[in-house]
Please model this.
Amino acid sequence: MKPLARLISLLPAYPPSLAFAGVLDLVLGNIARENSMAPLIGKTVRINVLDMGLELNIRVDRKGFSPAGSYASPDLSISADVQDFLLLASRREDPDTLFFSRRLLVEGDTELGLAAKNTLDAMEMPKISFPSPARVLSALLKPLH
Amino acid sequence: MSLELVCPAGSLPALKTALDNGADCVYVGLKGNTNARAFSGLNFDVQGLIEAARLVHARKRKIFVALNTYPQATNLTEWNKAVDSASEAGVDAVILADMGLMRYASRNHPELRLHLSVQGSATNYEAINFYREHFDIKRAVLPRVLSLQQVENVVGNTSVEIELFGFGGLCVMVEGRCLLSSYVTGESPNTAGVCSPARAVRWQKTANGLETRLNGVLLDCYADGENAGYPTLCKGRFEVGGETYYAIEEPTSLNTIELIPEMARMGISAVKIEGRQRSPAYVGQVTKTWRSAIDAFHGGRRSDPAWMSALSKLAEGQHHTLGAYHRPWK
Model:
């Protein structure tokens, strides 16, 4: 099992959106704070990990990523299986390809989804800080403190 | 002369991926509506273009800038400035459609190489020669509506280099003259830079299937497991004469990889891969496949069936066609 999948499989033990927001914030938080994600600021995004039955609700603001309540109706909703999310995150698969084969579904504000996709695509990989396992673990455990 | 492989780049990572996988040239657009892939977050700002040109030239490849939408009286300055920026960045060519912009470029930047965009809708050699005589264009990209016989007729009657689309989105209209999407959104790709503005697109899963709407108009409804396409009017399913079907074109991509020997024989100069809107993963996979195919042809090696399966996976609707190039009855 890939490290991220293993992490995600741990999530149900904790409030999933809270933990996921913590990890996202570690990886992409600086980018959100640098204002590179301007179209997403103030928006809520729902990530549906279909094969795991996970629904993660994230809010993006100038401070970074934070969890949003599951009752919130999101501005954008993205659904796929965990393996496909991993392929997208590692840039091994193109989202349009997954959409054509119905493995990726984007509902809600399409322009927001496209802006987020293009912003992430335009980032040089070294700019994205991949956190150490210890930092990921502490982000996951934060909800318990 | 070897067929030149021209690959799309909507971002710097996509551009690097294209170079890494063997593109001879990359083509890019500037942010704003000056090109026909004017999507939010896509494309290069002026500083990014300068950096991109430096990177491409360091690797001894070429970079073209698409400025292929039509400026209006109120925003002409923005398009002219884009030509200036491309020239200052030292790019190898600009790809233009509008005659006024061509005049501006040829007068103000006589050293800048001009290509006629597919958006210029030139489908015959008289039109192409007109552009050569007046603006000294060096290359023309042909619309995807001609048969191979018609393409050959063009190539045989002009000294302008001819670039053909090899893979990607299949436009069934005469590009540059399509107003279909403005019928429901009020914006046409020729002036606004996109076929379907993302803000007008909505996907929704319903009891009937996955519904695609453009500005509220239902374009298609995909059953579970049915492959999907881009949310454009020309690839929608409509009720015509009591039957509901893809009345104009089904979701499909153009794929001419099997025509490489034909294209080389005719004297085609370059093959263009569509898809500046797509992610680096697509650019890498398509570029790699076409590089192998072109090299195999020039090296006298046989074609590899793996090329087709690699490309089919990336195609719109997971389906590809030779489009108008193939007219066996002709």
In short: Chain B has two domains: 4-170+252-325, 196-246. The interface with chain A takes residues 10-14, 39-42, 197-199, 201-205, 210, 222, 224-230, 251, 277-282, 285, 313-318 of chain B (CB under 8 Å). Chain B has a mean pLDDT of 94.
